[in-house]
C-alpha cells in the first residue's frame, strides 16, 4: 500500500542512535524485498547495515544477481546507475542521497568526450584505431558512448585486463576519466610513459600535436580523484624510514609515484584481502580512503597488525559520506510504507548501449 512519502526533514535532526533502531525495524519489515549493497568507503553508521559489501566490480556483480525488488546502494551515483542497468527491469535501484556523486566521474562528460571523438577523427579514424575505455567511475551516458563505439568499461580490479581486451581489437585507447588508473595499468603492461600522454579535453586537440597523438598507445584523460591525489611519495619515505619492515599498499587512483613506491597496488577489495591474509604482527601503510583504513585498522588489532593511514590530512570521500544513517532511515521507512524515494533510473536508450560496454567487461573479467 502506498502512502504520502515521508519528508526527509523529519529525519534531518534525528540522532544517529535513533536512526540505527529505525533502520533495523524498517529492514525487518521489508525482509526479502530489500537488499542493501555497500561500498567499502561508507561510514560505519550505514556500512554495518549492508547485506553485501565490496569494490565496484563485486558490487556490480551482486547488482546483476540479487533477486530483491529494491536495491539500496550505499555508495555514489554511478554505482547506483550500474545497479539499475544490470538489474532486471522490475527491480528498483535507490541512492539514499542524490547528492552523493563522484567528483572524478564529473571530470568527464558526454559533450567533452564527443568533442574529443570529433577532434581525434581529424587525425585518425577513431572507430578503426581507438578503443574508448571508461573507468566504471563515470556517468551512464559515457558507458553508452563506449558501448556504441566498440569500447568497454573497467574497474580498478581489471583495468589491465580491459586494456589487453582493447589492444587485441585496436591499436590505441582513449582512457577516461582517471589518468592515474590508466597510467598505472599501462605501465604494468610495459607501455612507456611517452606513449601515454595526457589528453586535456579543455585544450584544442587535447593539447597534443598530431605526432604525439599518432605515437600514443593510451591517451589519458586529464582527470583524477581528489581524495587519492592527497597521497605523496614523501608519506611512504617517512614510513619506511621509521618502519624499515613496514609494508605499503595503495589504490591505483593514487598518483603514479605513490604506486611506484608501494609494495602492493590494487582495488579496495584487494587491499582488504591482502592485509587480512598477511602474517600477524605486520605493519601496513595504506593509501586509500579513510573509512576503509580506520575500519581495517580496528579489525586487525586482535591479530597484532598495525594499519596506518597514508596521509596526515583527513582524506575522506565527502560525497560517499553523504549517505548517513538519517538518509538511510528515511529511505527505508519510505520503502516500508510503499513509497519509493530517490530511484535511480537510467534512460532506456542509454541503458541499452551502456549494458553492451558493461557486459563486455563482465564477460572478459
Ligand atoms: P574500488 O572499485 O577499488 O572499490 O574503487 C572505487 C572507487 O571509487 C575508489 O575511489
Ligand atoms: Fe570518486 Fe574519489 Fe570518492 Fe572514489 S574516492 S568515489 S573516485 S571522489
UniProtKB/TrEMBL annotation:
It is an enzyme of class 2 (transferase). It is found in: Cytoplasm. [4Fe-4S] cluster binds at residues 102, 225, 317. One of its GO terms (biological process) is 'de novo' NAD+ biosynthetic process from L-aspartate. Iminosuccinate binds at residues 39, 56, 135-137, 156, 251-253, 268. InterPro entries: NadA, NadA_sf, Quinolinate_synth_A_type3. Catalyzes the condensation of iminoaspartate with dihydroxyacetone phosphate to form quinolinate. Belongs to the quinolinate synthase family. Type 3 subfamily. This is Quinolinate synthase.
Amino acid at each position: 500500500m502506498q502512502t504520502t512519502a515521508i519528508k526527509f526533514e523529519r529525519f534531518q535532526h534525528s540522532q544517529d542512535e535513533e536512526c540505527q533502531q529505525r533502520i533495523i525495524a524498517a529492514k525487518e519489515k521489508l525482509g526479502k524485498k530489500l537488499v542493501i549493497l555497500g561500498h567499502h568507503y561508507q561510514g560505519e553508521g550505514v556500512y554495518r547495515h549492508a547485506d553485501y559489501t565490496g569494490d565496484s566490480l563485486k558490487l556490480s556483480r551482486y547488482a546483476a544477481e540479487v533477486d530483491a525488488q529494491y536495491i539500496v546502494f550505499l555508495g555514489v551515483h554511478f554505482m547506483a546507475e550500474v545497479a539499475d542497468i544490470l538489474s532486471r527491469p522490475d527491480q528498483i535501484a535507490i541512492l539514499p542521497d542524490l547528492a552523493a556523486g563522484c567528483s572524478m566521474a564529473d571530470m568527464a562528460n558526454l559533450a567533452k568526450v564527443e568533442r574529443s571523438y570529433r577532434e581525434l577523427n581529424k587525425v585518425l579514424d577513431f572507430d578503426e584505431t581507438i578503443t574508448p575505455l571508461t573507468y566504471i567511475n563515470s556517468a551512464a551516458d559515457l558507458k553508452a558512448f563506449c558501448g556504441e563505439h566498440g569500447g568497454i568499461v573497467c574497474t580498478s580490479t581489471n583495468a589491465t585486463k580491459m586494456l589487453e581486451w582493447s589492444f587485441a581489437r585496436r591499436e590505441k585507447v582513449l582512457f577516461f576519466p582517471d589518468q592515474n588508473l590508466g597510467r598505472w595499468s599501462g605501465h604494468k603492461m610495459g607501455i612507456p610513459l611517452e606513449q601515454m600522454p595526457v589528453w586535456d579535453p579543455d585544450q584544442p586537440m587535447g593539447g597534443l600535436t598530431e605526432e604525439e597523438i599518432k605515437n600514443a598507445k593510451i591517451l589519458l584523460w586529464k582527470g583524477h580523484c581528489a581524495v587519492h591525489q592527497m597521497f605523496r611519495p614523501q608519506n611512504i619515505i617517512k614510513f619506511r624510514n621509521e618502519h624499515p619492515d613496514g609494508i605499503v599498499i595503495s589504490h591505483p587512483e593514487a598518483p603514479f609515484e605513490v604506486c611506484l613506491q608501494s609494495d602492493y597496488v590494487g582495488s579496495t577489495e584487494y587491499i582488504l584481502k591482502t592485509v587480512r591474509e598477511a602474517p600477524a604482527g605486520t605493519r601496513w601503510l595504506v593509501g586509500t580512503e579513510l573509512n576503509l583504513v580506520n575500519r581495517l585498522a580496528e579489525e586487525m588489532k586482535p591479530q597484532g597488525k598495525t594499519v596506518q593511514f597514508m596521509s596526515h590530512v583527513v582524506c575522506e570521500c565527502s560525497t560517499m559520506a553523504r549517505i548517513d544513517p538519517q538518509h538511510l532511515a528515511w529511505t527505508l521507512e519510505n520503502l516500508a510504507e510503499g513509497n519509493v524515494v530517490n530511484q535511480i533510473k537510467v534512460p532506456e536508450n542509454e541503458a541499452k548501449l551502456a549494458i553492451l560496454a558493461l557486459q563486455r567487461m563482465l564477460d572478459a573479467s
